[in-house]
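Researcher: We're teaching a course module on how sequence relates to structure. For the next exercise, students receive a sequence and then see the predicted structure as C-alpha cells, so they can try to spot secondary structure elements on their own. Here is the exercise chain.
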Amino acid sequence: MISILLFEQIAQLFLCIFLGWLLVKVRLLRPEDSRVISMVTLYLVSPCVIVTAFQIERTPDMLRGLALSFCTAVGIHLLMFFLTALARRPLHLTPVEQASVIYTNAGNLVIPIVTAILGQEWVIFTSMFIVVQLPLLWSHGRILISGEKTISLKKIICNVNILSILAGGALFLLDFPLPGVVAGAMDSVGAMIGPLSMIVAGMLIGGIDLRHIFVLPSIWRVVALRLVVFPLAILCVLKASGLAALVPDGETILLVSLLGAITPSASTVTQMAQVYGNDGTYASAINVMTTLFCIVTMPLTIALYQM
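Model: And here is the predicted structure for the students to work with:
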C-alpha cells in the first residue's frame, strides 16, 4: 500500500533530519553552515532531478497526463487561496502565517518521495505543481511577506527550478535524449536531493529551542491548517471531481498532485521572511513544526485517498 511505503520513506528522511540535528548538537557544524548545503541542493541537485524527469518518451497519453497535472495544480492553489481568504480574519492570520499555509515544500520533499515510492518516471508530474507554485510564491508570496506591491519578473523567470523545467521541457518536446554518461551522472547527483534537503532541515532544527516553539498557541492553528484542514479539503475535491477517469493512470497523477499539496510549509517562506525582516524566526518555527508532524499526517491523508 502506497501510504505504508510513504510512511517508510518519510521515516527514512526523518533519520536524515536527525543526522543533521546531530551534526549541530555535537558542534561539528553550525546551523548557518546549512546554507552551503542548501545552495548545492538548490543549484545543482534539484535541476538534475527536474531535467532527468523529462527524459521520457513523448506520447499522447503523457501529454494528456501533464495537462491534467497542470490543471489540477492550478485548481489546488485556487482552493488554497480561497480557504485562506475565509480563515484570514476569523483566525487573525498574519502575512507569514498566510504564506505558510498556502505554499508547500513540494520541491524539496515530494520529488524524493515520488522517486522512492512511484519511480523516476512520475517525477515529471511534480514539475507541473512546481511550475504553478513558483510564480505565485515569488509574486503573491513575496508581496505578502515583504509588504511591497511590485512583482519581480526577473526572480520568477530566473528561478533555477523554472529554468530547469524549461530546459527539461524543451528536451522533452524535441525528443532529444541526453547522452548516457550525462544522464547517468545527473541521476547520481539527483539521488542526493532527499537526504541533503532533510540534513539541512535537521541542522536548522538543531539551532532552535523546540520547547519555546511548542508553547506558541498560534503555531498550532497554522500546523492544523497546513497539514490537516487544507489537505482534507483538497482530498474531498479531488475524490468528488472524477478527474482521475479522464486519462490513463489518472488516479496516480492526482496522487502526485495531492502529495505536492500536503507537504510542510515551504522553506522559501522562511527565507523570504528572514530577508524582509518579517518574523523570520516564527516562519522558521512553522517550517520545523509542519516538517515534524508531516510524518503522521501525510501517510494518513494518502491512506484516505486510496480508500
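Model: If you want an answer key for the exercise: The chain has one domain: 2-306. The chain has a mean pLDDT of 85.
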